[in-house]
Amino acid sequence: MKHDASDVHDLAAAYALNALDADEREEFAAHLPGCETCRQDAADFEATAAGLAAAAAHIPPTAMKQRTMQAVDGVRRLPPRASTASPLSFRAALSRRTVPLALAASLTAAASFAGLAAWQNQQNRQFEQRARQSEQRLDTVSSVLAAPDARTVHGRAGNGAFTTVVASDQQNKAVFTATGLPAPAAGKTYQLWLDHDGTMRPAGFIHQDGTVPLDGDTADARTVGLTLEPAAGSPQPTTTPLLLLALRT
User: Fold this and answer.
1) Domain for residue 242, yes or no?
2) Mean pLDDT of the chain
3) What's the pLDDT at 107?
4) Domain with 190 in it
5) Does 60 map to a domain?
6) Is 208 inside any structural domain?
7) Total count of domains within the chain
8) Which helix (H) or strand (E) holds 129?
9) Is residue 99 very low, low, confident or very high in pLDDT (cuts 50, 70, 90)?
């Protein structure tokens, strides 16, 4: 089957999708070595098709192959059905499909870039939020340590960690420091507490060695507690305190 040179150029998309008949594929394959434009077009369409396939791909369940093979024997074969539709030239089909394929590729690329941009924006916002929180914690710790009425108490937790609390009644703030704190079990974390007239109120978390500000009013708190709680925290202590450190005598 012979075509005009301009017609042969139109076969790049179909060649990349392996949709040519034998004669057309042979003709286009012979045309490719001498046409840089068609080689580039075919490569671009192959890359686009691969990208679309990868985007829609799903890993099948492990047992799917076994179930499919077992079901094959029970499928009744249907007799062949003759087609009554008039043949449609590939050129006509291609003229209707090339533009949608290019449009789909463009939309896929645009969606990918938009998704990447959204992900980057989200990551930047999270980074900025963490940076602000770290700066606020550092300011709180610095102001408490430098307070003229700052007082320091030390204690050792039941798991061996050495702890220190520095409190300032004027600032109504305190910071908690732990050294040698063992890593909590999976799904657990260390939760801090402030004792107000016999009621233990949540005062934040500490996940490893370091210094953290205590949440809540500390000026009238009598004791700082430390317990091991579920990772999301608890409204009241659910385990025996590892530490009960008196802030006042």
Assistant:
1) yes
2) 76
3) 58
4) 151-246
5) no
6) yes
7) 1
8) helix 90-146
9) low
CB 24 within 8 A of CB 54: no
For residues 187 and 130, give the distance between their C-alpha atoms in angstroms, rounded to a whole number.
22
Query: Is 75 part of a structural domain of the chain?
Result: no
Q: Three-state SS for 53?
A: helix
Interstrand relation of 243-246 and 223-230 (parallel, antiparallel or unpaired): antiparallel
End-to-end CA distance of the chain: 102
Look-up: residue for tokens 């710790």? 141
- Residue 182's identity, in one-letter code, is P
236-249 tens-digit pLDDT? 999 999 999 998 76
Return all residues near 149 (Cβ < 8 A) that are at least 6 apart.
168, 169, 170
Which of the four pLDDT bands, split at 50, 70 and 90, describes residue 225? very high
Please work out, in degrees rounded to the nearest 5, the angle formed at the alpha carbon of residue 92 by the alpha carbons of 88 and 95: 150
Instruction: State phi, psi for 152 to the nearest 5 degrees.
Output: -125, 135
